[in-house]
Amino acid sequence: MARICDIRGTRVRSGGKIHRSGLAKKKGGIGRHVTKVVKRTVSPNLQSKRIWVEELGQHVKLKISCRALKTMNKNGAFATLKKAGLIG
């Protein structure tokens, strides 16, 4: 399955990590130099959760990020799921 949040749509992002060598000038060196740029991926913090929705009277199983879980705690499960279009 894809690593995508059901509510926010957060997915794996790609970026770069810069490798540097040398000692900084302020520490007495001749400066730092870029030696390599490496591709890397940043994954969302996904959790599989079974959430009780009071208005529906049942549990809903979701794969959501921790940010979406905080949003759900703040706004309520039913309102968040309705805004995401997961329930009618």
Number of domains: 1
Corresponding CATH architecture: Roll
User: Quick one: CATH superfamily?
Assistant: Ribosomal protein L28/L24
Query: SSE order in H/E notation?
Result: EEEEHH
Strand content: 35-45%
Count all strands and give the number. 4
Based on helices, strands and strand pairing, what is the structural class?
Answer: alpha+beta
Strand order in space, largest sheet: 1-2
Q: Strand count, sense and closure of the main sheet?
A: 2 strands, antiparallel
Regarding CATH, which class?
Mainly Beta
Radius of gyration: 21 Å
Percent helix range: 10-25%
Determine the number of helices (DSSP H or I, runs of at least 4 residues). 2
Overview of the molecule:
- It is built from two helices and four strands.
- With 88 residues, the protein is of the alpha+beta class.
- It has a single domain (13-84), classed as Ribosomal protein L28/L24 (Ribosomal Protein L24e, Chain: T).
- The chain has a two-stranded antiparallel ribbon with strand order 1-2.
- A hairpin with a 4-residue loop joins strand 3 and strand 4 (58-65).
- Helix 1 crosses helix 2 (77-84).
- The mean pLDDT is 95.
Provide keyphrases for this structure:
88 residues; alpha+beta; Ribosomal Protein L24e, Chain: T; two-stranded antiparallel sheet; 2 helices; 4 strands; elongated
